[in-house]
């Protein structure tokens, strides 16, 4: 009887081990602004993408898929949940349509069921290494209600917001159009008003109190001051790197960033025994592709 129990116990343990060993591991790669016609495996004969083509040859190549949105934030929400972004409140009608400021209270609701939550409930180790862009906090800077760790991921290392030209010195600004409308045009109006009032006063055609000139000059100085503060503090306040809940680099340096995050992802895989899913939304430049030294002329 004891021998039979031992045999049954061994068979049970073997079955459990076989079941655990049969569960696959997942590595998901995501790239911003990559069209279906960009990789060579989908017909691009201009740029060479040998590594991506090799993956396609050894796996399954999907030929019919539509992104839920052309923007980072809503398309990521759909990718994580499998639902249209409008159903989770992640579809915006504003001109921007994505999260730009770290102080934004919006983000992917914790009530949404992500594939990371489902796999974590099945015993998977989950990690997201790269760009998140689905919000961070709700009410204060430490609640982390929209953080990846609140959506089923055990580990996060990457950019909580997005990549803008403003995050790297010398690459320009995405706010140029807004600055022209909200700053330069009002300053031009103030300058024309000052000049007109000065001419009218000089010609004796109007009595202009000195206080009006002072107020207009103060208004112009205030507008310029706000512009300088915005441009100066935007990068350190919104362009930073996080590991879990800790800020590890502020402002972020994009030198070898992809290599650093890739190395961390490889280490995450190597140190795990249990089944895992690792999501790598590559921290590419959304608006400007910035090449590292020695990478010019190469395809990946």
UniProtKB/TrEMBL annotation:
Pfam families: Sulfatase (PF00884). Its cofactor is Ca(2+). Residues 24-161 form the Sulfatase N-terminal domain. The chain crosses the membrane at residues 181-200, 212-234. InterPro entries: Alkaline_phosphatase_core_sf, Sulfatase, Sulfatase_CS, Sulfatase_N. Keywords: Calcium, Hydrolase, Membrane, Metal-binding, Signal, Transmembrane, Transmembrane helix. Residues 1-20 form the signal peptide. GO terms for molecular function: arylsulfatase activity; metal ion binding. Belongs to the sulfatase family. This is Steryl-sulfatase-like. It comes from Leptonychotes weddellii. The gene is LOC102745530.
């Amino acid at each position: 009887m004891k021998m039979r129990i031992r045999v049954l116990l061994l068979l049970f343990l073997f079955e459990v081990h076989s079941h655990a060993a049969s569960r696959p591991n997942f590595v998901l790669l995501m790239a911003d602004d990559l069209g279906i016609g960009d990789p060579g495996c989908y017909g691009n004969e201009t740029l060479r993408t040998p590594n991506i083509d090799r993956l396609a040859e050894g796996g399954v190549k999907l030929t019919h898929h539509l992104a839920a949105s052309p923007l980072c934030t809503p398309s990521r929400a759909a990718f994580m949940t499998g639902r249209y972004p409008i159903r989770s409140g992640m579809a915006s009608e504003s001109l921007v349509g994505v999260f730009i400021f770290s102080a934004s209270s919006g983000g992917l609701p914790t009530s949404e069921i992500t594939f990371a939550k489902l796999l974590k409930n099945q015993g998977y180790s989950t990690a997201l290494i790269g760009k998140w862009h689905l919000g961070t906090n709700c009410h204060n800077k430490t609640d982390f209600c929209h953080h990846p760790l609140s959506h089923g991921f055990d580990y996060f290392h990457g950019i909580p917001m997005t990549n803008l030209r403003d995050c790297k010195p010398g690459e320009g600004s995405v706010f140029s159009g807004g600055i022209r409308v909200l700053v330069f045009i009002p300053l031009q109006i103030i300058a024309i008003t000052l000049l007109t009032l000065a001419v009218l006063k000089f010609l004796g055609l109007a009595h202009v109190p000195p206080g009006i000139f002072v107020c207009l000059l103060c208004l112009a100085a205030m507008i310029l001051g706000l512009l300088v503060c915005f441009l100066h503090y935007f990068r350190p306040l919104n362009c930073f790197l996080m590991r879990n809940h800790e800020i590890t680099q502020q402002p972020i340096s994009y030198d070898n960033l992809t290599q650093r995050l890739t190395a961390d992802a490889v280490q995450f895989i190597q140190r795990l025994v249990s089944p895992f899913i690792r999501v790598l939304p590559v921290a590419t430049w959304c608006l400007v592709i910035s090449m590292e030294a020695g990478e010019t002329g190469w395809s990946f």
